[in-house]
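Annotators were shown the component list below and the corresponding predicted structure, then asked to write short factual statements about the assembly.
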Amino acid sequence: MDILGTLKGLASDSGFGLFFAEGGWKYLIMIAVACVLLYLGIHKKFEPLLLVGIAFGCLLTNLPGAGLYSPELWDAFLDPTNPAYHSFGTIMTHGGLLDILYIGVKAGVYPCLIFIGVGAMTDFGPLIANPKTFLLGAAAQFGVFFAFFGAILLGFTGNQAAAIGIIGGADGPTAILTATLLAPELLGAIAIAAYSYMALIPMIQPPIMKALTTEKERSVVMTQLRDVSKTEKILFPIITSSFIILLLPSTAPLIGSLMFGNLLKETGVTERLSDTAQNALMNIVTLFLGISVGATTVATRFLTLQTLGIVLLGLIAFSFSTVGGLLVGKLMYKLSGGKINPLIGSAGVSAVPMAARVSQMEGQKANPKNFLLMHAMGPNVAGVIGSAIAAGFLIKFFG
Amino acid sequence: MNTATVSGSPMELLPALGTAIMGYAVVFLGIVMLMFVIIITGKIMTARKQPAAAPAPAIEKPASAPKALPAPGSAGQVKLFDVPDKEAAMIMAIVANKMGKPLNELRFKSIKEITEEEK
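Structure shown to annotators:
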């Protein structure tokens, strides 16, 4: 019996041994990246509910030999010349645990289920009370199309540029769905950039807000919003989903799910379902979504210059979305005779409710008697609808 | 890049710029149209609510007549409709805190719970 040979074989076949194989060092770098992401999620509390899952998925997928996620299977899944083209059966038969969980991302199920939960947690009352703030939600999609063009300049394909641009929508599920449908090879980098920048909104937005507004504009106190009746709140998801989906059918999965969740919340007769959507369903899907998206960050695919480009373009997208919202906010300030505080414009970047909180904080710094939170929630939730429309347009155009 | 698949094909700058402008315009168009639909719905709902609410002040007027008496502070002057004393005290304290004014400088006329039917 060749004991030494057996031991050598065990050592070379083990994950530790694979670190020393060709390109094995890349896995070590990705494990370090996973640890940094875990630190940001756990210690710095950067969107921890998703970032911790993404980071741990990143760690698991980069442990050589674990075989939890197989990018080759997904390459075959996307290759029309391969017998395994669009075969979920092949994934189920040959895939690892994270491959199987990733089917929910690939089929576009998880982002939509999360949107049901988001809808169930969202109060569209401030938007219904002041529908003009819809405009700010549209204006703040500027960064999506600016970054799209920037990505084309950097040499990305049309599909990839569209998936990168949607980071500017500051909406995780929308970014994941768009990337999955248009450029699945960039999903991991796009998801990490989107969630990291969403967590960094309190640092990204204030300097831009201060640069583009005057002290006088920031200190405007807005009048109290009107009361919105229960009937209006029930009608809103029905009207919005019907109208937007008829206008742009490709928005159906996102807008339909968002408004369904909101209807469950507002009817008052489906409290159990609303509660499940907000808590149990949301938590379970977040768990699967985070770890399976993290799994796509395989070292051989992730450590590229393109990833750096995506991180840079993501920041540009977020910044210019803020700029777009603020500029239209300033326009509304002028047209309303100084009754609208332009700071609520930056909340149009979605990222509910973080962006609205930033508007509130900056407003109070300028005028301690300023309470902008509810006013900023209008454009904030309009931003969710705006980014879904932007995604629908890009999916329709490039899908 | 070391990926086996690259989605899509390269795009020229001019068509990309056109796509970006068109996309932004579509977002605005969709949102503006939805905004008008919501404004119209809001106006219809408000108009429907007003006739129903009209008789209410006529009924409440006799009850509010004694409020003409001077009330230097909120204590002892506020009329409570289906609101326990403790809750009323909390509401007054919160309002005073949010307005940044001492409670004795504010005058509360009445506190009434608005039921779902009244909304």
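Statements collected:
1. The interface with chain A takes residues 1-11, 13, 16-17, 19-21, 23-24, 26-28, 30-35, 37-39, 41-42, 45, 49, 98, 100, 116, 119 of chain B (CB under 8 Å).
2. The two ends of chain B are 60 Å apart (CA to CA).
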